[in-house]
Write a structure and sequence with these properties.
320 residues, single chain, 4-stranded antiparallel β-sheet, 12 helices, alpha+beta, extended
């Protein structure tokens, strides 16, 4: 990247955050801190109002904005792909906002980029399996935008949450920590005032949600990353190292499934494929293996063989 392009990119980076550290700029462009200082000085001499806070970073003085940014064809294509992903993996509120944002982006594209996007639009698809169940219809995802507002403004959320396990709805007031997408669902991690602890709420199980004017102190809670790391550590404390051997001609039936069960290693040994997994539930894993019958051998642990034997005994008693 030549210096002119880098200066423009640095200016865009400064506009994207309230405060940007010199080290962040250096890491992004793989340049030294001394070069960062020279580049920022060059922007200041060109009339860009850049302020600095000792030990904190640089900032753009309030009120200054670049003229509309022009996108390359590759950047426009990446945004189109993002729009396709949003259609399948976000909720109604976020899809609507992203669609409005894309309209604004398209409005500043050059004619050639607009034509390029139109030619790509029908040739990019993101597919997602969505089971048409009553529950999915009863509780559509529609609260992500409100949750994001609460997260950004440190506001308390009041919601009616339905537990399919207990088949009861409860009114909760929670202090949101973060959201993440996993296993085809959005999850809200929040401190529940009713239970006095951190809880994982499936967003599609929220019946009603209101962002309250009341605020909370964010620094008294774990960050989302800290919470997720704690959960991973707890899972690792109760996991089993599992090794199985499947007939090679059966492997085509476990293409994606093996990853859902925590695949760590896979290697072909003669007419068998040895698979190594980390799994927290032997019973859950045993139920998956039963479908392969005598085409699978359990190499370890012995507890898994016992779990499979117990399931076979249970099935035998049920059907005979």
């Amino acid at each position: 990247m030549n210096r002119i392009d880098r200066l423009t990119a640095i200016l865009i980076q400064l506009q994207g955050k309230k405060i940007v550290k010199a080290s962040e700029i250096a890491d992004r462009f793989n340049i030294s801190l001394r070069t960062v200082y020279r580049d920022v000085k060059a922007l200041q001499e060109a009339g860009v109002p850049i302020g600095a806070e000792a030990g904190t970073g640089y900032y753009i003085v309030e009120g200054y904005h670049l003229p509309p940014v022009m996108f390359s064809k590759e950047e426009a294509a990446a945004l189109l792909t993002g729009e396709k992903l949003m259609e399948q993996f976000s909720d109604h509120s976020n899809r609507k906002q992203f669609s409005l944002a894309m309209e604004k982006i398209r409005s500043v594209l050059r004619g050639t980029e607009k034509d390029y996007l139109e030619s790509l639009d029908e040739n990019i698809a993101v597919l997602r399996f969505r089971p048409s169940t009553a529950n999915a219809t009863e509780f559509p995802n529609r609260f992500l935008t409100d949750i994001q507002q609460a997260l950004g403004m440190n506001q308390v959320i009041s919601m009616e949450y339905f537990s399919f396990q207990e088949e009861v709805a409860t009114r909760r007031e929670v202090e949101p920590v973060g959201i993440f997408h996993s296993s085809a669902n959005w999850h809200l991690i929040a401190f529940c005032r009713l239970r006095q602890g951190y809880r994982d709420f499936r967003v599609d199980r929220i019946r009603k949600l209101t962002v309250l004017p009341a605020t909370y102190k964010k620094d008294k809670h774990l960050s989302l990353q800290d919470y997720l790391e704690q959960q991973r550590s707890r899972q690792n404390e109760n996991t089993y190292l599992i090794k199985i051997a499947l007939d090679n001609d059966v492997m085509r039936y476990v293409r994606e499934q093996k990853y859902y069960f925590g695949l760590m290693e896979e290697k072909v040994v003669g007419n068998k494929t040895e698979l190594t997994f980390l799994q927290s539930s032997l019973n859950y894993f045993a139920r998956w293996l039963i479908m392969f019958g005598n085409r699978v051998d359990v190499l370890q642990p012995q507890e898994l063989k016992t779990a499979i034997g117990d399931l076979i005994t249970e099935l035998h008693g049920h059907y005979l």
